[in-house]
Amino acid sequence: MNGSSMISPTTTPAPAPSSTPTPASTLTPAPAPSSTPTPSNVPSSRSVPSSSSVPSAPPRVLSIAGSDPSGGAGIQADIKSISAMGGYAMTAITALTVQNTQGVQSVHVPDAAFLSAQLDSLSADIEIDAVKIGMLPTADVIRVVGEWLGRVRPAVVVLDPVMVASSGDSLVEQDARLALLELLDHAHLVTPNLPELGVLVGEPEAQSWESALLQGKRLAARRGIQVLVKGGHLTGDECPDALVGPHGAVTELAGMKILTGNTHGTGCSLSSALATVQVRSLDWALSLRQVKEWLTQALEHSDDLQVGKGRGPVNHFYSLWSTASPLPGAFTQKLWDDCAPVRAAIFELPFITELVHGSLTEAHFAYYLAQDAKYLNAYSRVLARAGELAPTENEQRFWMEGAHNALEVELSLHRDWLSVHPVDQADAIRAEMGPVTKHYVDHLLAAAFAGSYGEVVAAVLPCYWLYADVARVLAPERPGIDGGHPYGRWLDSYADEAFATSARTAVEILDVAARRTNAADRQRMASAFAYSAQCELDFFDAPRLHS
Protein backbone atom coordinates (compact mmCIF):
# COMPACT_ATOMS: atom_id res chain seq x y z
CA MET A 1 0.00 0.00 0.00
CA ASN A 2 1.07 3.57 -0.44
CA GLY A 3 -0.27 6.05 2.11
CA SER A 4 -3.34 6.83 0.02
CA SER A 5 -5.62 3.95 0.94
CA MET A 6 -8.35 3.07 3.37
CA ILE A 7 -8.00 -0.38 4.87
CA SER A 8 -10.21 -3.01 6.41
CA PRO A 9 -8.23 -5.83 8.04
CA THR A 10 -9.31 -9.47 8.05
CA THR A 11 -6.98 -12.32 8.92
CA THR A 12 -6.70 -15.06 6.29
CA PRO A 13 -4.56 -18.17 5.90
CA ALA A 14 -1.72 -18.34 3.40
CA PRO A 15 -3.82 -18.79 0.18
CA ALA A 16 -4.34 -15.77 -2.08
CA PRO A 17 -7.17 -13.35 -1.25
CA SER A 18 -10.67 -13.51 -2.64
CA SER A 19 -11.26 -11.70 -5.91
CA THR A 20 -14.16 -9.79 -4.31
CA PRO A 21 -12.75 -6.86 -2.31
CA THR A 22 -14.23 -5.52 0.90
CA PRO A 23 -16.04 -2.20 0.27
CA ALA A 24 -13.85 0.75 1.21
CA SER A 25 -16.54 2.17 3.49
CA THR A 26 -16.65 -1.02 5.57
CA LEU A 27 -14.18 -1.36 8.43
CA THR A 28 -13.94 -4.97 9.57
CA PRO A 29 -12.50 -5.13 13.10
CA ALA A 30 -9.08 -6.70 13.39
CA PRO A 31 -9.03 -10.05 15.19
CA ALA A 32 -8.43 -9.88 18.90
CA PRO A 33 -4.91 -10.88 19.88
CA SER A 34 -4.62 -14.41 21.16
CA SER A 35 -2.91 -15.22 24.43
CA THR A 36 -0.42 -17.26 22.41
CA PRO A 37 1.10 -15.13 19.66
CA THR A 38 0.53 -16.48 16.18
CA PRO A 39 3.27 -16.74 13.60
CA SER A 40 1.82 -13.73 11.74
CA ASN A 41 2.48 -11.51 14.74
CA VAL A 42 5.89 -12.74 15.94
CA PRO A 43 9.01 -12.83 13.78
CA SER A 44 10.61 -16.23 14.09
CA SER A 45 14.19 -15.08 14.45
CA ARG A 46 13.74 -12.04 16.69
CA SER A 47 12.66 -11.39 20.24
CA VAL A 48 9.66 -9.19 21.00
CA PRO A 49 8.88 -7.33 24.20
CA SER A 50 6.61 -8.99 26.73
CA SER A 51 3.48 -7.28 27.98
CA SER A 52 5.24 -6.57 31.26
CA SER A 53 7.84 -4.49 29.38
CA VAL A 54 5.36 -2.17 27.65
CA PRO A 55 6.40 1.36 28.69
CA SER A 56 3.91 3.52 30.58
CA ALA A 57 5.65 6.69 29.39
CA PRO A 58 5.32 7.83 25.76
CA PRO A 59 7.26 5.44 23.47
CA ARG A 60 10.74 6.78 22.73
CA VAL A 61 11.10 6.34 18.99
CA LEU A 62 14.22 7.00 16.94
CA SER A 63 13.99 7.83 13.24
CA ILE A 64 17.13 7.08 11.26
CA ALA A 65 16.44 8.80 7.96
CA GLY A 66 17.14 11.69 5.63
CA SER A 67 16.01 15.27 5.99
CA ASP A 68 13.34 16.87 3.81
CA PRO A 69 13.42 20.67 4.07
CA SER A 70 9.86 20.90 2.71
CA GLY A 71 8.67 19.04 5.82
CA GLY A 72 6.58 16.40 4.06
CA ALA A 73 8.85 13.36 4.17
CA GLY A 74 11.97 12.07 5.91
CA ILE A 75 12.68 12.85 9.52
CA GLN A 76 10.28 15.81 9.41
CA ALA A 77 7.37 13.52 8.54
CA ASP A 78 8.60 10.97 11.09
CA ILE A 79 8.66 13.51 13.91
CA LYS A 80 5.09 14.51 13.10
CA SER A 81 3.88 10.91 12.80
CA ILE A 82 5.55 9.74 16.00
CA SER A 83 4.14 12.73 17.86
CA ALA A 84 0.66 12.22 16.40
CA MET A 85 0.75 8.60 17.64
CA GLY A 86 1.71 9.70 21.16
CA GLY A 87 5.44 9.02 20.99
CA TYR A 88 8.58 10.99 21.80
CA ALA A 89 10.53 11.48 18.57
CA MET A 90 14.32 11.41 18.15
CA THR A 91 16.32 11.58 14.93
CA ALA A 92 19.66 10.58 13.48
CA ILE A 93 20.15 12.17 10.05
CA THR A 94 21.56 10.01 7.27
CA ALA A 95 21.34 12.50 4.41
CA LEU A 96 20.53 16.12 3.65
CA THR A 97 18.38 16.72 0.60
CA VAL A 98 17.54 19.70 -1.53
CA GLN A 99 13.91 19.07 -2.35
CA ASN A 100 10.40 20.43 -2.37
CA THR A 101 7.00 19.04 -3.30
CA GLN A 102 8.03 18.99 -6.97
CA GLY A 103 11.13 16.84 -6.63
CA VAL A 104 14.62 16.21 -5.27
CA GLN A 105 17.31 18.46 -6.70
CA SER A 106 20.35 17.29 -4.72
CA VAL A 107 21.45 14.89 -1.96
CA HIS A 108 24.35 15.40 0.44
CA VAL A 109 25.50 12.45 2.55
CA PRO A 110 27.47 13.32 5.71
CA ASP A 111 30.36 11.06 6.68
CA ALA A 112 29.13 7.70 7.97
CA ALA A 113 31.30 8.10 11.05
CA PHE A 114 29.24 11.15 12.01
CA LEU A 115 26.05 9.09 11.80
CA SER A 116 27.70 6.43 13.96
CA ALA A 117 28.51 9.10 16.56
CA GLN A 118 24.87 10.29 16.54
CA LEU A 119 23.58 6.78 17.16
CA ASP A 120 26.09 5.97 19.89
CA SER A 121 25.41 9.24 21.69
CA LEU A 122 21.67 8.57 21.75
CA SER A 123 21.81 4.95 22.89
CA ALA A 124 24.39 5.74 25.57
CA ASP A 125 21.96 8.10 27.26
CA ILE A 126 18.38 7.22 26.22
CA GLU A 127 16.50 3.93 26.29
CA ILE A 128 15.10 3.54 22.79
CA ASP A 129 11.79 1.67 22.54
CA ALA A 130 11.49 1.58 18.76
CA VAL A 131 13.44 2.46 15.65
CA LYS A 132 12.16 3.48 12.25
CA ILE A 133 14.69 3.32 9.42
CA GLY A 134 14.16 5.32 6.27
CA MET A 135 16.57 6.67 3.66
CA LEU A 136 20.00 4.99 3.83
CA PRO A 137 21.77 6.38 0.76
CA THR A 138 25.07 4.43 0.76
CA ALA A 139 26.41 1.01 1.68
CA ASP A 140 28.63 2.61 4.36
CA VAL A 141 25.61 4.21 5.99
CA ILE A 142 23.76 0.89 5.92
CA ARG A 143 26.74 -0.88 7.49
CA VAL A 144 26.90 1.68 10.33
CA VAL A 145 23.18 1.33 11.05
CA GLY A 146 23.38 -2.48 10.93
CA GLU A 147 26.29 -2.62 13.37
CA TRP A 148 24.55 -0.27 15.77
CA LEU A 149 21.31 -2.31 15.64
CA GLY A 150 23.31 -5.45 16.33
CA ARG A 151 24.75 -3.90 19.49
CA VAL A 152 21.64 -2.13 20.82
CA ARG A 153 18.96 -4.60 19.63
CA PRO A 154 15.88 -2.34 19.91
CA ALA A 155 12.62 -4.14 20.69
CA VAL A 156 10.82 -2.76 17.62
CA VAL A 157 12.55 -2.04 14.31
CA VAL A 158 10.60 -0.99 11.21
CA LEU A 159 12.50 -0.66 7.93
CA ASP A 160 11.06 1.49 5.18
CA PRO A 161 13.47 0.67 2.31
CA VAL A 162 13.41 4.12 0.76
CA MET A 163 14.94 3.89 -2.70
CA VAL A 164 12.86 6.20 -4.87
CA ALA A 165 10.96 9.33 -3.80
CA SER A 166 7.27 9.69 -4.64
CA SER A 167 8.37 12.19 -7.29
CA GLY A 168 10.33 9.40 -9.03
CA ASP A 169 13.80 10.63 -8.01
CA SER A 170 16.38 8.01 -6.95
CA LEU A 171 17.56 8.41 -3.35
CA VAL A 172 20.18 5.63 -2.93
CA GLU A 173 23.24 4.32 -4.73
CA GLN A 174 23.05 1.02 -6.59
CA ASP A 175 25.32 -0.88 -4.18
CA ALA A 176 23.20 0.33 -1.24
CA ARG A 177 20.20 -1.55 -2.63
CA LEU A 178 22.02 -4.84 -2.22
CA ALA A 179 23.27 -3.93 1.26
CA LEU A 180 19.69 -3.36 2.39
CA LEU A 181 19.12 -7.11 2.21
CA GLU A 182 21.57 -7.68 5.04
CA LEU A 183 19.88 -4.99 7.13
CA LEU A 184 16.64 -6.98 7.02
CA ASP A 185 18.18 -9.36 9.55
CA HIS A 186 17.91 -6.59 12.18
CA ALA A 187 14.31 -5.54 11.42
CA HIS A 188 10.94 -6.86 12.58
CA LEU A 189 8.81 -5.29 9.82
CA VAL A 190 9.70 -4.08 6.34
CA THR A 191 7.32 -1.78 4.43
CA PRO A 192 8.37 -1.68 0.74
CA ASN A 193 6.25 -0.35 -2.08
CA LEU A 194 5.94 -2.65 -5.11
CA PRO A 195 9.06 -1.42 -6.95
CA GLU A 196 11.10 -1.77 -3.74
CA LEU A 197 9.63 -5.20 -3.06
CA GLY A 198 10.77 -6.35 -6.49
CA VAL A 199 14.32 -5.17 -5.77
CA LEU A 200 14.41 -6.94 -2.41
CA VAL A 201 13.42 -10.30 -3.95
CA GLY A 202 15.48 -9.78 -7.09
CA GLU A 203 12.51 -9.83 -9.44
CA PRO A 204 10.70 -7.37 -11.72
CA GLU A 205 8.02 -5.21 -10.13
CA ALA A 206 4.79 -7.16 -9.60
CA GLN A 207 2.00 -6.16 -11.96
CA SER A 208 -0.84 -7.87 -10.09
CA TRP A 209 -1.89 -8.25 -6.49
CA GLU A 210 -1.44 -12.01 -6.60
CA SER A 211 2.15 -11.61 -7.83
CA ALA A 212 2.87 -9.01 -5.14
CA LEU A 213 1.61 -11.37 -2.43
CA LEU A 214 3.85 -14.15 -3.69
CA GLN A 215 6.85 -11.82 -3.62
CA GLY A 216 5.97 -10.74 -0.10
CA LYS A 217 5.74 -14.35 1.05
CA ARG A 218 9.11 -15.18 -0.48
CA LEU A 219 10.77 -12.20 1.21
CA ALA A 220 9.14 -12.95 4.58
CA ALA A 221 10.20 -16.61 4.45
CA ARG A 222 13.77 -15.92 3.34
CA ARG A 223 14.42 -13.28 5.98
CA GLY A 224 12.16 -14.42 8.81
CA ILE A 225 10.43 -11.05 8.89
CA GLN A 226 7.01 -9.43 8.71
CA VAL A 227 6.41 -7.85 5.29
CA LEU A 228 3.77 -5.23 4.60
CA VAL A 229 2.79 -5.67 0.95
CA LYS A 230 1.32 -2.40 -0.31
CA GLY A 231 -0.86 -2.24 -3.42
CA GLY A 232 -0.78 1.50 -3.95
CA HIS A 233 1.22 1.22 -7.18
CA LEU A 234 -1.31 -1.10 -8.83
CA THR A 235 -3.59 0.33 -11.51
CA GLY A 236 -7.28 0.82 -10.77
CA ASP A 237 -9.24 2.25 -7.88
CA GLU A 238 -8.64 -0.61 -5.46
CA CYS A 239 -5.72 -0.50 -3.06
CA PRO A 240 -5.30 -3.86 -1.31
CA ASP A 241 -2.63 -4.40 1.35
CA ALA A 242 -1.42 -7.39 3.29
CA LEU A 243 0.68 -8.14 6.33
CA VAL A 244 2.65 -11.31 5.49
CA GLY A 245 4.31 -13.34 8.24
CA PRO A 246 7.49 -15.43 7.94
CA HIS A 247 5.46 -18.66 8.08
CA GLY A 248 3.06 -17.64 5.31
CA ALA A 249 0.14 -16.27 7.37
CA VAL A 250 -1.52 -13.28 5.70
CA THR A 251 -3.64 -10.48 7.17
CA GLU A 252 -5.54 -8.97 4.25
CA LEU A 253 -6.34 -5.29 4.13
CA ALA A 254 -8.89 -4.29 1.49
CA GLY A 255 -9.46 -0.68 0.55
CA MET A 256 -9.88 1.97 -2.12
CA LYS A 257 -7.40 4.61 -3.20
CA ILE A 258 -8.03 8.09 -1.89
CA LEU A 259 -8.30 10.67 -4.62
CA THR A 260 -5.61 13.14 -3.65
CA GLY A 261 -2.33 14.30 -5.10
CA ASN A 262 -0.94 14.93 -1.62
CA THR A 263 0.97 11.70 -1.09
CA HIS A 264 4.43 13.12 -0.34
CA GLY A 265 5.87 11.25 2.63
CA THR A 266 3.09 8.68 3.04
CA GLY A 267 5.57 5.79 3.30
CA CYS A 268 7.67 7.63 5.87
CA SER A 269 4.60 8.55 7.89
CA LEU A 270 3.20 5.02 7.79
CA SER A 271 6.36 3.28 8.93
CA SER A 272 7.22 5.68 11.76
CA ALA A 273 3.65 5.59 13.06
CA LEU A 274 3.70 1.78 12.99
CA ALA A 275 6.93 1.69 14.99
CA THR A 276 5.38 3.97 17.61
CA VAL A 277 2.08 2.12 18.03
CA GLN A 278 3.70 -1.33 18.04
CA VAL A 279 5.58 -0.51 21.24
CA ARG A 280 2.29 -0.64 23.13
CA SER A 281 0.07 -2.90 21.07
CA LEU A 282 2.62 -5.73 20.60
CA ASP A 283 0.47 -6.89 17.67
CA TRP A 284 1.31 -5.84 14.13
CA ALA A 285 -2.24 -6.31 12.84
CA LEU A 286 -3.71 -4.12 15.57
CA SER A 287 -0.97 -1.54 15.07
CA LEU A 288 -1.61 -1.46 11.35
CA ARG A 289 -5.35 -1.02 11.78
CA GLN A 290 -4.88 1.97 14.08
CA VAL A 291 -2.23 3.59 11.92
CA LYS A 292 -4.13 3.13 8.67
CA GLU A 293 -7.24 4.71 10.13
CA TRP A 294 -5.17 7.72 11.16
CA LEU A 295 -3.29 7.93 7.86
CA THR A 296 -6.50 7.66 5.85
CA GLN A 297 -7.86 10.72 7.65
CA ALA A 298 -4.52 12.50 7.24
CA LEU A 299 -4.77 11.97 3.48
CA GLU A 300 -8.42 12.98 3.31
CA HIS A 301 -7.59 16.25 5.11
CA SER A 302 -4.35 16.89 3.22
CA ASP A 303 -5.90 19.55 0.98
CA ASP A 304 -6.38 21.72 4.08
CA LEU A 305 -2.62 22.34 4.24
CA GLN A 306 -2.16 23.89 0.77
CA VAL A 307 1.59 23.25 0.75
CA GLY A 308 3.56 23.45 -2.48
CA LYS A 309 2.80 23.16 -6.19
CA GLY A 310 3.59 19.44 -6.56
CA ARG A 311 2.82 16.42 -4.41
CA GLY A 312 1.86 17.94 -1.09
CA PRO A 313 2.22 16.33 2.35
CA VAL A 314 -0.40 14.52 4.39
CA ASN A 315 -2.06 16.33 7.28
CA HIS A 316 -0.44 14.57 10.24
CA PHE A 317 -2.12 16.72 12.88
CA TYR A 318 -5.61 17.02 11.38
CA SER A 319 -7.13 15.62 14.58
CA LEU A 320 -5.19 17.93 16.86
CA TRP A 321 -5.86 21.01 14.78
CA SER A 322 -9.54 20.21 14.39
CA THR A 323 -9.90 20.14 18.18
CA ALA A 324 -7.69 23.15 18.96
CA SER A 325 -9.24 26.05 20.84
CA PRO A 326 -10.49 28.80 18.51
CA LEU A 327 -8.92 32.23 18.41
CA PRO A 328 -10.67 34.97 20.40
CA GLY A 329 -13.85 35.96 18.60
CA ALA A 330 -13.63 33.18 16.02
CA PHE A 331 -16.22 30.85 17.57
CA THR A 332 -18.96 33.44 18.04
CA GLN A 333 -18.26 35.01 14.66
CA LYS A 334 -18.80 31.64 13.02
CA LEU A 335 -22.08 31.21 14.92
CA TRP A 336 -23.18 34.62 13.67
CA ASP A 337 -22.15 33.89 10.10
CA ASP A 338 -23.83 30.49 10.12
CA CYS A 339 -27.15 31.92 11.27
CA ALA A 340 -27.20 34.57 8.51
CA PRO A 341 -30.14 32.86 6.73
CA VAL A 342 -32.18 32.92 9.95
CA ARG A 343 -31.36 36.59 10.53
CA ALA A 344 -32.37 37.48 6.99
CA ALA A 345 -35.61 35.54 7.35
CA ILE A 346 -36.50 37.43 10.53
CA PHE A 347 -36.38 40.78 8.77
CA GLU A 348 -38.62 39.46 6.02
CA LEU A 349 -41.41 38.42 8.41
CA PRO A 350 -44.64 40.45 8.20
CA PHE A 351 -44.63 40.65 12.00
CA ILE A 352 -41.33 42.59 12.01
CA THR A 353 -42.10 44.93 9.10
CA GLU A 354 -45.59 45.71 10.44
CA LEU A 355 -44.28 46.12 13.98
CA VAL A 356 -41.70 48.74 13.07
CA HIS A 357 -44.19 50.75 11.01
CA GLY A 358 -46.92 50.53 13.64
CA SER A 359 -49.37 48.64 11.39
CA LEU A 360 -49.26 45.32 13.28
CA THR A 361 -52.70 44.33 14.59
CA GLU A 362 -53.20 44.53 18.32
CA ALA A 363 -54.35 40.91 18.35
CA HIS A 364 -51.07 39.71 16.89
CA PHE A 365 -49.01 41.87 19.24
CA ALA A 366 -51.07 40.82 22.25
CA TYR A 367 -50.53 37.16 21.37
CA TYR A 368 -46.83 37.80 20.97
CA LEU A 369 -46.56 39.57 24.36
CA ALA A 370 -48.63 36.97 26.16
CA GLN A 371 -46.41 34.19 24.84
CA ASP A 372 -43.30 36.25 25.53
CA ALA A 373 -44.37 36.62 29.15
CA LYS A 374 -44.60 32.84 29.49
CA TYR A 375 -41.27 32.47 27.71
CA LEU A 376 -39.55 35.02 29.97
CA ASN A 377 -40.75 33.21 33.07
CA ALA A 378 -38.88 30.08 31.95
CA TYR A 379 -36.02 32.12 30.47
CA SER A 380 -35.32 33.71 33.84
CA ARG A 381 -34.88 30.23 35.35
CA VAL A 382 -32.45 29.28 32.62
CA LEU A 383 -30.46 32.47 33.17
CA ALA A 384 -30.35 31.69 36.88
CA ARG A 385 -29.06 28.22 36.02
CA ALA A 386 -26.32 29.82 33.92
CA GLY A 387 -25.42 31.84 37.00
CA GLU A 388 -25.15 28.67 39.06
CA LEU A 389 -22.79 27.08 36.53
CA ALA A 390 -20.72 30.19 35.79
CA PRO A 391 -17.01 29.80 36.62
CA THR A 392 -16.39 33.42 37.64
CA GLU A 393 -18.06 35.85 40.00
CA ASN A 394 -18.55 38.43 37.25
CA GLU A 395 -20.35 35.92 35.04
CA GLN A 396 -22.49 34.75 37.96
CA ARG A 397 -23.52 38.34 38.66
CA PHE A 398 -24.29 39.00 34.98
CA TRP A 399 -26.62 36.04 34.60
CA MET A 400 -28.38 36.61 37.92
CA GLU A 401 -29.03 40.25 36.98
CA GLY A 402 -30.37 39.03 33.64
CA ALA A 403 -32.74 36.64 35.40
CA HIS A 404 -34.00 39.45 37.65
CA ASN A 405 -34.45 41.77 34.66
CA ALA A 406 -36.47 39.18 32.77
CA LEU A 407 -38.87 38.76 35.68
CA GLU A 408 -39.22 42.31 36.93
CA VAL A 409 -38.63 44.79 34.12
CA GLU A 410 -39.80 43.00 31.00
CA LEU A 411 -42.75 41.22 32.59
CA SER A 412 -43.85 44.58 33.98
CA LEU A 413 -43.71 46.03 30.48
CA HIS A 414 -45.81 43.16 29.16
CA ARG A 415 -48.44 43.50 31.92
CA ASP A 416 -48.67 47.26 31.44
CA TRP A 417 -49.30 46.98 27.71
CA LEU A 418 -51.84 44.18 28.00
CA SER A 419 -53.78 46.04 30.70
CA VAL A 420 -54.02 49.16 28.56
CA HIS A 421 -54.82 47.34 25.32
CA PRO A 422 -57.26 44.52 26.15
CA VAL A 423 -58.28 42.36 23.19
CA ASP A 424 -60.81 39.62 22.63
CA GLN A 425 -59.80 36.21 23.97
CA ALA A 426 -56.81 37.76 25.73
CA ASP A 427 -57.53 35.77 28.88
CA ALA A 428 -57.59 32.50 26.96
CA ILE A 429 -54.39 33.42 25.16
CA ARG A 430 -52.68 34.23 28.43
CA ALA A 431 -53.78 30.95 29.98
CA GLU A 432 -52.15 28.69 27.39
CA MET A 433 -48.58 28.29 26.25
CA GLY A 434 -48.51 28.12 22.47
CA PRO A 435 -46.78 25.28 20.60
CA VAL A 436 -43.85 27.40 19.46
CA THR A 437 -43.32 28.79 22.95
CA LYS A 438 -43.41 25.34 24.49
CA HIS A 439 -40.95 24.00 21.93
CA TYR A 440 -38.52 26.82 22.62
CA VAL A 441 -38.86 26.57 26.40
CA ASP A 442 -38.34 22.80 26.34
CA HIS A 443 -35.12 23.32 24.39
CA LEU A 444 -33.84 25.91 26.86
CA LEU A 445 -34.66 23.81 29.91
CA ALA A 446 -32.98 20.75 28.37
CA ALA A 447 -29.82 22.75 27.78
CA ALA A 448 -29.96 24.26 31.25
CA PHE A 449 -30.36 21.06 33.21
CA ALA A 450 -28.67 18.49 30.99
CA GLY A 451 -26.00 20.48 29.20
CA SER A 452 -22.70 22.12 30.04
CA TYR A 453 -22.25 25.74 31.01
CA GLY A 454 -21.28 26.51 27.43
CA GLU A 455 -24.44 24.90 26.09
CA VAL A 456 -26.62 26.94 28.44
CA VAL A 457 -24.95 30.19 27.41
CA ALA A 458 -25.19 29.26 23.72
CA ALA A 459 -28.89 28.46 24.09
CA VAL A 460 -29.80 31.78 25.75
CA LEU A 461 -27.56 33.98 23.57
CA PRO A 462 -29.89 34.38 20.54
CA CYS A 463 -32.48 36.07 22.71
CA TYR A 464 -29.87 38.73 23.49
CA TRP A 465 -28.01 38.91 20.21
CA LEU A 466 -30.85 38.64 17.69
CA TYR A 467 -33.10 41.09 19.57
CA ALA A 468 -30.27 43.62 19.83
CA ASP A 469 -29.60 43.22 16.12
CA VAL A 470 -33.27 43.65 15.21
CA ALA A 471 -33.42 46.84 17.27
CA ARG A 472 -30.19 48.13 15.70
CA VAL A 473 -31.34 47.52 12.13
CA LEU A 474 -34.91 48.74 12.55
CA ALA A 475 -34.22 51.89 14.58
CA PRO A 476 -33.54 54.12 11.52
CA GLU A 477 -36.67 52.82 9.80
CA ARG A 478 -39.03 53.66 12.64
CA PRO A 479 -41.41 56.55 11.85
CA GLY A 480 -40.61 59.72 13.73
CA ILE A 481 -43.90 60.12 15.55
CA ASP A 482 -43.38 61.58 19.00
CA GLY A 483 -45.25 59.36 21.38
CA GLY A 484 -47.55 58.22 18.62
CA HIS A 485 -46.05 54.83 17.75
CA PRO A 486 -48.31 52.13 19.23
CA TYR A 487 -45.38 49.82 19.98
CA GLY A 488 -42.74 52.45 20.63
CA ARG A 489 -42.12 51.60 24.27
CA TRP A 490 -41.49 47.94 23.47
CA LEU A 491 -39.13 48.82 20.63
CA ASP A 492 -37.28 51.30 22.84
CA SER A 493 -36.61 48.66 25.48
CA TYR A 494 -34.55 46.60 23.03
CA ALA A 495 -32.94 49.56 21.28
CA ASP A 496 -31.64 50.79 24.62
CA GLU A 497 -27.83 50.93 24.86
CA ALA A 498 -27.92 49.01 28.14
CA PHE A 499 -29.51 46.04 26.37
CA ALA A 500 -26.98 46.26 23.53
CA THR A 501 -24.18 46.23 26.12
CA SER A 502 -25.67 43.15 27.76
CA ALA A 503 -25.82 41.42 24.41
CA ARG A 504 -22.14 42.15 23.76
CA THR A 505 -21.23 40.85 27.20
CA ALA A 506 -23.15 37.63 26.60
CA VAL A 507 -21.33 37.14 23.29
CA GLU A 508 -17.96 37.64 25.00
CA ILE A 509 -18.87 35.16 27.75
CA LEU A 510 -19.78 32.51 25.20
CA ASP A 511 -16.58 33.09 23.26
CA VAL A 512 -14.47 32.62 26.40
CA ALA A 513 -16.42 29.49 27.32
CA ALA A 514 -15.75 28.05 23.86
CA ARG A 515 -12.00 28.54 24.29
CA ARG A 516 -12.07 26.90 27.72
CA THR A 517 -13.75 23.69 26.61
CA ASN A 518 -13.16 20.85 24.14
CA ALA A 519 -14.18 20.34 20.52
CA ALA A 520 -17.11 18.05 21.33
CA ASP A 521 -18.61 20.59 23.73
CA ARG A 522 -18.08 23.38 21.19
CA GLN A 523 -20.04 21.37 18.67
CA ARG A 524 -22.91 20.98 21.15
CA MET A 525 -22.74 24.70 21.91
CA ALA A 526 -22.99 25.52 18.21
CA SER A 527 -25.99 23.22 17.87
CA ALA A 528 -27.71 24.80 20.89
CA PHE A 529 -27.18 28.29 19.48
CA ALA A 530 -28.45 27.36 16.02
CA TYR A 531 -31.53 25.69 17.49
CA SER A 532 -32.37 28.73 19.62
CA ALA A 533 -31.85 31.05 16.66
CA GLN A 534 -34.37 29.05 14.65
CA CYS A 535 -36.75 29.16 17.62
CA GLU A 536 -36.48 32.97 17.65
CA LEU A 537 -37.50 33.07 14.00
CA ASP A 538 -40.45 30.77 14.69
CA PHE A 539 -41.43 32.82 17.76
CA PHE A 540 -41.69 36.02 15.72
CA ASP A 541 -43.89 34.23 13.19
CA ALA A 542 -46.09 32.47 15.75
CA PRO A 543 -48.75 35.25 16.00
CA ARG A 544 -49.53 34.86 12.31
CA LEU A 545 -49.92 31.11 12.65
CA HIS A 546 -51.49 30.66 16.09
CA SER A 547 -53.19 33.85 17.33
Automatic annotation (TrEMBL):
Its EC number is 2.7.1.49, 2.7.4.7. It is an enzyme of class 2 (transferase). One of its GO terms (molecular function) is hydroxymethylpyrimidine kinase activity. Pathway: Cofactor biosynthesis; thiamine diphosphate biosynthesis; 4-amino-2-methyl-5-diphosphomethylpyrimidine from 5-amino-1-(5-phospho-D-ribosyl)imidazole: step 3/3. Residues 68-315 form the Pyridoxamine kinase/Phosphomethylpyrimidine kinase domain. Gene3D superfamilies: 3.40.1190.20, Heme oxygenase-like. Residues 1-72 are annotated as: Disordered. CDD domains: HMPP_kinase, TenA_C-like. It catalyses: 4-amino-5-hydroxymethyl-2-methylpyrimidine + ATP = 4-amino-2-methyl-5-(phosphooxymethyl)pyrimidine + ADP + H(+); 4-amino-2-methyl-5-(phosphooxymethyl)pyrimidine + ATP = 4-amino-2-methyl-5-(diphosphooxymethyl)pyrimidine + ADP. Transmembrane segments: none annotated. Residues 342-542 form the Thiaminase-2/PQQC domain. NCBIfam families: HMP-P_kinase (TIGR00097). Catalyzes the phosphorylation of hydroxymethylpyrimidine phosphate (HMP-P) to HMP-PP, and of HMP to HMP-P. This is Bifunctional hydroxymethylpyrimidine kinase/phosphomethylpyrimidine kinase. It comes from Arthrobacter cryoconiti.
